[in-house]
Design goal:
Elements: E1 2-11, E2 20-27, E3 30-35, E4 41-46, E5 51-52, E6 56-58, E7 81-86, H1 101-112, H2 116-122, H3 130-138, E8 145-151, H4 152-160, H5 162-165, H6 172-188, E9 192-197, H7 216-229, E10 233-238, H8 246-257, E11 261-264, H9 275-287, E12 292-295, E13 301-305, H10 318-323, H11 328-335, H12 338-346, H13 357-365, E14 371-373, H14 387-394, H15 398-406, H16 408-411, E15 414-420
Parallel strand pairs: 1-4, 1-5, 6-7, 7-8, 8-9, 9-10, 10-11, 11-12
Antiparallel strand pairs: 1-2, 2-3, 13-15, 14-15
Length: about 425
């Protein structure tokens, strides 16, 4: 008799082989048989019509705060994920000096749009060093496993204080201390190290993540420290500016240390290198002895825009800015007022001084790149489903159509703006 038998499921075993119908036996917490299982189980699950597959490892998450207080780890645990990797993009909560707690929260809030109030209320901060953070994570029983990188932003701020937060150039001593902290973290159980090199990643105050402008000597020194430990992954999100020669130093580091280097391979208006060139550079480096791995999202991702969201297409119009600080109930009174609507739609955008102005312009006027978000939304929409096309079909100006869309269901409408990994395939029309 087996401890558990899962019967009649459609088995997708992760090997790449075709799916098949069969049973799975489990004994002592391990799979002991796959196929036709004759013996009964103390517990049996009828999986007919269901897919049975190994748990998914989500290699890019930002549960760094939630993991310290939440055992369920939702929503990932709802969707077959059995391991999450945190500490990506150079942001996280260790190492952390007491006076930097709120600053680290603001960094995560700005980069990942995680409410700072939730982080402030949920975290107990019973750690300072990175090994102590791992101990804090280990204390909690949870539904899924967690792994984490040592984040560059937190390390820089810990070692360099305000100089690190402002992305100033480190001294040789600063670099040595950062490398030591990363090595200690990896020895204690960290999966690796992460850094952010994109201007899209900013704190709630608009400051770049520490390490964004780090130079080759700092990055390679940290990689060497992990190399001496003997294991570790170097993870990076980058705008891949040509003058930075990211593939040059990534390949050099990987060849010297023997460690894998992984980067977020994205097709985006913020990237200088198109995805085809990113992949060809990866292949060229690996053909010469490097181990560079591209992280590729299986679905295009982007921004959800709503009246009550962080951003929406009318955020930069004076009429909205005049009511932006009001409670929602008062905002809604204005938004459903025909006179307010007419005034706002007649206004031009007032742009802030920023180095991401092209992205903001796409948010505010990119009707050919935006879609109505509905229940059962197709994440591979067509040109005919854009706000621009839908407005034209309805005989409306796209801005008015978007305003009405956001105002549906008492102001609960959503617009989806797929800024990453969706400029190819269905959106070939964007490229001409």
């Amino acid at each position: 008799m087996h401890d558990l038998v899962i019967r009649g499921g459609t088995i997708v075993d992760g090997s790449g082989n075709p799916r098949f119908t069969g049973d799975i036996a489990v004994d002592g917490g391990r799979i002991t048989a796959v196929g036709a299982v004759a013996a009964p189980g103390r517990e049996e699950i009828d999986a007919k019509g269901l897919i049975v597959t190994p748990g998914f490892v989500d290699i890019h998450t930002h549960y760094d705060g939630q993991a310290t207080w939440d055992s369920e780890m939702a929503p990932s645990s709802w969707h077959g994920v059995t391991t999450v990797v945190m500490g990506n993009c150079g942001v996280g909560f260790a190492p952390a000096k007491p006076e930097k707690h709120q600053w680290l929260i603001g960094l995560m809030e700005g980069v990942e749009d995680i409410p700072g109030t939730a982080l402030a209320e949920g975290m107990t901060w019973d750690w300072e060093t990175f090994p102590e953070y791992l101990t804090a994570l280990e204390k909690r029983q949870r539904t899924i496993d967690v792994a984490t990188h040592v984040p560059h932003g937190a390390v820089r701020a810990y070692v360099m204080g305000e100089r690190g937060a402002r992305n100033e150039k480190p001294t040789a001593d600063d670099i040595a201390k950062m490398a030591e902290i990363v090595a200690d973290g990896v020895k204690a159980g960290a999966l690796g190290f992460s850094t952010s090199r994109t201007i899209l990643h900013k704190s709630i105050d608009g400051e770049l993540v520490p390490g964004t402008t780090a130079e080759k000597d700092e990055l390679i020194a940290i990689g060497r420290a992990m190399g001496k430990v003997g294991h570790g992954v170097f993870e990076m999100a980058s705008d891949l500016k040509r003058e930075w020669d990211e593939f040059g130093w990534m390949a050099e580091m990987s060849r010297e240390t023997g460690l894998p280097v992984t980067f977020a391979m994205l097709q985006s208006i913020a990237k200088e290198l198109p995805w085809e060139e990113q992949m060809s550079e990866t292949a060229r480096a690996n053909a010469n002895g490097a181990n560079i791995v591209a992280q590729i999202a299986i679905r295009g991702n982007g921004i959800l825009m709503a009246w009550r969201g962080t951003v929406h297409p009318f955020k930069f119009r004076p009429s909205w800015q005049a009511i932006e600080a009001l409670p929602w109930e008062e905002q809604w009174q204005h938004l459903r007022d025909p006179a307010f609507k007419a005034k706002l739609l007649a206004e031009d955008n007032v742009w802030p001084e920023t180095d991401v102005l092209p992205l903001l312009m796409a948010v505010a006027m990119g009707w050919q790149l935006q879609f109505e978000m509905t229940e059962g939304f197709n994440y591979e929409p067509t040109q005919a489903e854009t706000i621009f096309a839908m407005a034209r079909a309805a005989g409306k100006d796209p801005a008015e159509y978007a305003y009405d869309l956001l105002s549906r269901d008492e102001g609960k409408g959503f617009i989806y703006f797929p800024i990453l990994n969706y400029a190819d395939g269905n959106l070939d029309f964007v490229k001409g």
